[in-house]
Specification:
The chain is 48% helix and 15% strand. The chain has three domains: 16-68 and 92-119, no CATH class; 70-85 and 120-472, Glycogen Phosphorylase B (Rossmann fold, 3-Layer(aba) Sandwich); 477-799, 3-Layer(aba) Sandwich (Rossmann fold). The protein contains 33 helices and 22 strands. A hairpin with a 2-residue loop joins β3 (159-163) and β4. It has a nine-stranded mixed beta sheet with strand order 5-8-9-2-1-10-11-15-16. Strands 19-18-17-20-21-22 form a six-stranded parallel beta sheet, sandwiched between helices. The protein binds pyridoxal-5'-phosphate (PLP). Pyridoxal-5'-phosphate binds at residues 126-127, 130, 557, 638-639, 642, 664-666, 669. Keywords: Carbohydrate metabolism, Glycosyltransferase, Pyridoxal phosphate, Transferase. Belongs to the glycogen phosphorylase family. Its cofactor is pyridoxal 5'-phosphate. Pfam families: Phosphorylase.
């Protein structure tokens, strides 16, 4: 249907009558509901469909424009996306919140009730998945044509509940109420092969070729979720793949009465996209995980080749039509897959295909933790992806020739750079594959990028220094400020103009207001009201009553030893012991709030949660303490809960051991919402501190250079314990029986700290206490605290993910972005 215009209609009109009619039409025609009998969930679905229509129309128009102009599109490959609830965000982006609210009011429906109906897609573990979603939001906002490719897990990250102080994992049935945001695209199916063997053959010109004869084929079905941009006519697409059996049954087996075998294959195929692996920063080497990684990258690349041919462009031009970003090494097998598609399927010569491949990919590293670096047994790859193993060997052979030429006789370097780890059982090193196959390699904060060049990827940086760059992470100010903190949003609009979410540097206009006592008063009122709201959620979810005027000291993020939630707890218990001994001690009222999920198999992380809940049980009920300090574990930390928590933070805990947190983004969300940070010189904390001013940041702890020095100098945590009476007292307290009748409960944590302490808690303990003392002192001067709080927000503009995306466009993808409006 060439030449058919995408016209406006009632469906996407923004007048009051159009909105009302569109909503009722969806309720009646799309859902088949009688308005009189319709439920709240029906209303949510009908509203979501109405809003989706608006977003879709933009999406289709924008796609048409991109194809007409042949722009280079960005494909963001990520095994995880953590978008959060869509409805409120779209309404904000489209500027429809108030007109929709009014329209619904007219029908006796409350918008907030409908917003609460939405299940969030928990298709990620934490920071990495959330970053992918912030980036889609910003890509749409700054006007870049883009697709986020990933997996449509049927079950996302588990639901966390707390029972008797322990984490309990529940199944995340996010699709059960129906998902109105996605559109199934039966036309975009892709076949994905696994197993079998390869065969040589010769083409018409007698050139040797390879053919892959798989043992299994699985079908990928595309599900599209449009992602709107703020005040933008561009729309990004999140295209997620679901695995299906190619045939619903193996009919021959079925007809022979072998029902079990027939069903087995179908179930095995569909298992592929069944569930997200709940490990954050830990590579466990499970075969199903490798299958997932290959599955979605294979679907994505074939889909992109299909779109390329719709443009009438040849496969050799793949890289000028697409820039692919690899979000960590999870999609790194794509390097070998694109080579296979270009060479085996499209008949390109190796050298041309390699040039195209290397000009297509860029790789973002997210961690320096050795246990997170992905490597797959050679035999596993060979069994599942025999052709890819051959291709990886070929890439490696050619690459190592290049290395030999640059560093003759340096066999150790060769062994380190090789795509194959041959130091023991053989493994394919995915970071090496990603580096060799990419145009650009980046870390996610200045410090992290520097450490990357000095440690994990030092040999690659020596070989190709120009490949390496930094793009500091960012967060979307739409979801995490405007939507999460409307009170602050209003205040910001007054001083920075109403378009501040589209140009976050405008927040600098706040600075002079930090000196205005009346403005500071307004600022405190906004924070207090956010804290009241959070206090009511805490009461509802945990039964704990907290004082909204107390200092809200918050650490919410995945539970991990390197993030050191247990260091925070050592401080909590130290304060407690101090108050017990000296009830007159000047300790301002504080509420310690923890939240975050522990990987189900991570023993110590689960004990850390138990320690937080045990501390709460003891302290919250201790009459001597009389509510001066309280400890809360907020269950099920996810994007939605984050939106209620981040705006209510006074003190942001960013206390990872220096050199361990690649960037962090929770740190940015909190500081943007006016929290002061207590933190180490780790990840983006370094840049946040520079931006907000060192006088507005509570710094403590070893720096990244001191950490290895201390470790190699023979660090003995037990000596710290022996020589510091306060430390000894609090460590002994953990196994004293005061935290519950089972004295052994925290013995593993204590043993870990006394005899290993891999994250140097005992070394940083004193510095941390001192910094916490400075926090208390500043808190007792509310005007000074508020001033610092305002300056934090005012100076955080560069941590908008719009800035990160502009950096990627300029330094990595070489695509144009919209200019900022004046
Ligand atoms: C921002 C965010 C994170 C990342 O938090 P960090 O403090 O940077 O580790 C994790 N989970 C959710 C739900 C988030 O919104």
């Amino acid at each position: 249907m060439k030449g058919i215009p995408i016209s406006d209609s009632i469906r996407t009109g923004i007048g009051a009558d159009d909105l009302r009619q569109a909503f009722l039409d969806n309720l009646v025609c799309a859902l088949g509901r009688l308005p009189a009998y319709s439920t709240r969930h029906d209303h949510y679905l009908a509203l979501a469909m109405t809003v989706r229509d608006h977003v879709m129309r933009r999406g289709v128009r924008c796609f048409e424009k991109g194809d007409n102009l042949l722009v280079r599109r960005v494909a963001y490959f990520s095994a995880e996306f953590l978008p959060g609830p869509h409805l409120g965000n779209h309404l904000l982006n489209l500027g429809l919140t108030e007109s929709i609210r009014k329209m619904l009011d007219g029908l006796g429906i409350n918008l907030d009730d409908l917003l609460a109906e939405e299940e969030e897609p928990g298709l990620g573990n934490g920071g990495l998945g959330r970053l992918a979603s912030c980036y889609l939001d910003s890509l749409a906002t700054v006007g870049v044509q883009s697709v986020g490719y990933g997996i449509r897990y049927e079950f996302g990250i588990f639901d966390q509940t707390i029972r008797d102080g322990w984490q309990i994992q529940g199944t995340d049935k996010w699709l059960h109420g129906g998902n109105p945001w996605e559109v199934h695209r039966p036309g975009a199916v892709q076949d994905v092969m696994f197993g079998g063997h390869t065969e040589p053959w010769q083409d018409e010109s007698d050139s040797p070729r390879k053919r892959w004869v798989p043992s299994i084929v699985i079908r990928g079905e595309a599900y599209d979720t449009p992602i709107s941009g703020y005040d933008s006519d561009t729309c990004a697409l999140m295209r997620l793949w679901k695995a299906e059996a190619v045939e619903s049954f193996d009919f021959s087996a079925f007809n022979h009465g072998d029902y079990d075998r027939a069903v087995e294959q179908k179930v095995a195929s569909e298992n592929l996209s069944k569930v997200l692996y709940p490990n954050d920063e830990l590579h466990r080497g499970k075969e199903l995980r490798l299958k997932q990684q290959y599955f979605f990258t294979c679907c994505a690349l074939q889909d992109m080749l299909r779109i390329l041919s719709l443009r009438g462009a040849p496969p050799e031009s793949f890289h000028s039509n697409w820039a692919v970003q690899l979000n960590d090494t999870h999609p790194a097998i794509a390097v070998a897959e694109l080579m296979r598609l270009l060479v085996d399927q499209h008949g390109l010569g190796w050298d041309v295909a390699w040039k195209v491949t290397r000009s297509t990919f860029s790789y973002t590293n997210h961690t320096l933790l050795p246990e997170a670096l992905e490597r797959w047994p050679v035999d596993m790859i060979g069994g599942l992806l025999p052709r890819h193993l051959e291709i990886i060997y070929e890439i490696n052979a050619r690459f190592l020739d290049e290395v030999r030429a640059a560093f003759p006789g340096d066999d150790e370097r060769l062994a380190r750079l090789s795509l194959i780890d041959e130091s023991g059982p053989r493994y394919v090193r995915m970071a090496n594959l990603a580096c060799v196959g990419s145009q650009t390699v980046n870390g996610v904060a200045e410090l992290h990028s520097k450490l990357l060049r000095q440690t994990v990827l030092a040999d690659f940086a020596a070989l190709w220094p120009e490949k390496f760059t930094n793009v500091t992470n960012g967060v979307t100010p739409r979801r995490f400020v405007a939507l999460a903190n409307p009170g602050l949003g209003k205040l910001l609009a007054k001083v920075a103009g109403k378009n501040w979410p589209g140009d976050l540097e405008k927040l600098h206009k706040l600075e002079p207001h930090a000196e205005d006592p009346a403005f500071r008063q307004e600022w405190r009122e906004v924070k207090l009201s956010n804290k009241r709201h959070l206090a009511s959620l805490i009461a509802e979810r945990t039964g704990i009553e907290v004082d909204p005027t107390s200092l809200f000291d918050v650490q919410v993020k995945r539970i991990h030893e390197y993030k050191r939630q247990h260091l925070n707890l050592l401080h909590v218990l130290t304060l407690y012991l101090r108050l017990k001994k000296d009830p007159k001690a000047e300790v301002p009222a504080r509420t310690f709030i923890f939240g975050g999920k522990a990987a189900p198999g991570y023993f110590l992380a689960k004990r850390i949660i138990r320690l937080a809940t045990a501390a709460g049980e003891l302290i919250n009920h201790d009459r001597d303490i009389a509510g001066r300090i309280k400890v809360v574990f907020f269950p099920d930390f996810n994007v939605r809960n984050g939106q209620s928590i981040y705006p209510a933070v006074d003190l942001s805990e960013q206390i990872s051991l220096a050199g361990m947190e690649a960037s962090g983004t929770g740190n940015m969300k909190m500081s943007l919402n006016g929290a002061l940070t207590i933190g180490t010189l780790d990840g983006a904390n370094v840049e946040i501190r520079e931006a907000v001013g060192e006088e507005n940041f509570f710094l403590f702890g070893l720096n990244a250079a001191e950490v290895p020095a201390l470790k190699h100098g023979g660090y003995r945590p037990r000596d710290r314990y022996e020589s510091d009476p306060l430390l000894r007292e609090v460590i002994d307290f953990l196994t004293s029986g005061a935290l519950g009748e089972d004295r052994d409960l925290f013995q593993p944590l204590v043993d870990n700290l006394l005899y290993h302490d891999p994250y140097l808690l005992l070394a940083d303990y004193r510095g941390y206490l001192n910094a916490q003392q400075r926090v208390s002192e500043l808190w007792m001067d509310p005007e000074a605290w508020t001033r610092a709080s305002i300056l934090n927000t005012a100076r955080m503009g560069r941590f908008s993910s719009d800035r990160s995306i502009r950096d990627y466009c300029q330094r990595v993808w070489k695509v144009n972005v919209k200019k900022l409006k004046k």
